[in-house]
Amino acid sequence: MSKPKPDDELVFLPLGGAGEIGMNLNAYGYGPPDARQWIIVDIGVTFGREETTPGIELILPDPAFLEEERDNILAIVLTHAHEDHIGALGWLWPRFKVPVYATPFTAALVREKLREHGLLDKVPLTEIPLKGQLTLGPFDIDFVTLTHSIPEPNGLAIRTPLGLIWHTGDWKIDPDPLIGETTDVAKLRAMADEGVLAMVCDSTNVFVEGTAGSEAEVRLKLTEVIKKCTGRVAVTAFASNVARVETALYAARAAGRTPCLVGRSMIRIYNAAKSVGLLQDTPEVIDEDEAGSLPDANILFLCTGSQGEPRAALSRIARGDHRNVALRQGDTVIFSSRVIPGNEQAIHTLHNQFLERGVELITADQEHLIHVSGHPARDELKQMYAWARPRIAIPVHGEQRHIREHVKLALELQVPEAIGPQNGDLVRLAPGVAAIIDEVPSGRLYVDGANIVPAEDEALKDRRRLASEGAIHVTLAIGAKNAIVAGPTISVRGISMADEEDFELALEELQDAAEAAFQRLKRDEREDDDAVEGALMRAVRKAAQTLWRKRPLVDVSVLRL
Question: What is the pTM assigned to this prediction?
Fold first, then answer.
C-alpha cells in the first residue's frame, strides 16, 4: 500500500443510520480535502408510518452531498441483505452509477430489487466470495465473517494508507448460528495485532445487559412450543432470518405439520436462500391454495407481517380478508419476533383482532427464547472491543440515546477516543486526533408512489394536515360587476360533529364567514383572484378553528362569469 501524502485525510460520513435505527448509508473518503475518493457502505431504507407520513411506505437517506462527489465514488459495498442496508439501492443507484459489490446471498436479493426497477442489466454487480477481498483505489477491503439474523453478515476490514477501519455492520456473537459460520475471531485478533485505527460499530442493543442469545436455543424452544399446539398454527418472523425460517420448517416436520409459506417476501427470501444452497434439508412447502385440504392439526403457516404491516399476510389473515388462509377459535399464532419501536400500536391492533376471533397468541414476552435479537447486547459489545482494540470508537446504527451510551461504554473500556456522530457529520479519523470537521447536507427522501420527493415537499405537508385536521373547500362564482352570483358553497372532508343539525349550522357559519370576507374586499381586490382566495381562506380557517378547534386545509375556487 502506498504511503500517505502530506495533505491526505481519512474521513467517515454517515448519511443514514446515525441518530436512528435503520436507513443506513455510510461513506468513507480518502485523499486531500478537495480531491477525495469515496466508497459507500450500505444504502438502506426505513419505513413510513401512517400517523406521521401518510401514504409513504419507504423513506430513503438524502444523498445530495455524495451526488456532488459522484465522479469520485469508486463503488457501493454491501455488508448484508437487510432492507435497512440494501433497500434504497434500486431507487438511488441511478444518481451514482457505480459498481456494486456483495456476497452471494445478498447479491441474489439485490438482483430481485434491480429487476423490479428495470436496472438488472444496467448495474455492474459483482459477487464477492465469503471471506473475500476487494481493492478500490486507496481502499483494500476484507470481508469478515460475523453472525447476525440473516445469512452472510459481513464486517468490513477497510485498510488505507492512514490506517485500518473495522466497520462491523450488523452483528451479534452467536456460538451456534445454525446457518453460516461463527464469528471469525482469529481474523479480529489478527486485525487488532495489526492495529485498528477506528471501529464503526452497531449500537442497537447497547442498553441490553448480557448477550442476545443463540438461534440454536430458539430452535429447541420453538419446536417444543409448536408440538403443544392444537388446531392450525401460524408462525410469524422476519422473513430475512433464514435460520428462523429453517427452524419453523424443522419444527413443522417434528410436529407432524406441513409448512406453507404465506407472504411475498417470505417466498422471495426462501427462493433466494435455496438459490445459494441453503435450506436444502427442509421439508417441502406447499402453496396457500393446497393448505385447505389438510387437517387443522397438520398445517403450519409461516407468515410475513410480524410488525403489523397493514398489507402483509398476517394482517390480512387477522382482518379475515386473506384469499386462502383463515384462522379461528382453537388456532394459534406464534410471534417469533420482537416489537420494533414505533410499531407498538399496529402490533397491538393485530393482537386484538386475533383475540376477537378466539385465536390464541404466543409472543416473545410470554414465552422466553422463541425469539432472540440479531444485535449485540452489552457483554457482546465488550467482547468485540476486547478483540478489536480500536484507537477510536465510532458508534452508529442507533438513536441519539444509543449512540451516547455507546460512547460512554467505549470510554469505560479504555478506548482512547470516541465520537458519536449524527447524520451529516464529517468525521476525520486521520491524521491526528479524531474530530468532526464539517457538517454536510443530510436528510430524508420519501418514496411517494413511483416518485421520490423531498421530506419538505408541500404536497406531503398538505397530506399530513389533511390526515390530522381535515379539509374545507369553498366555491363561489363572481359576475361581471364583481359581485357574488352563486355561493359561497362549502364542502367539508375529515371533520364532523356528533349532531347532524349542529353540523349543518356549522356549514352555514362557514358560508357566512366566507361571504363577509368577500364583502370586506375593496373593488380592486375583488378583481384579483389571489386576493379573493386569500381573504376567504383566512376567514373560513378562523371560523373552523372556533367551531372545531382545528386548523383544516382550506382551498378556495373562484369562478368568473
Answer: 0.87
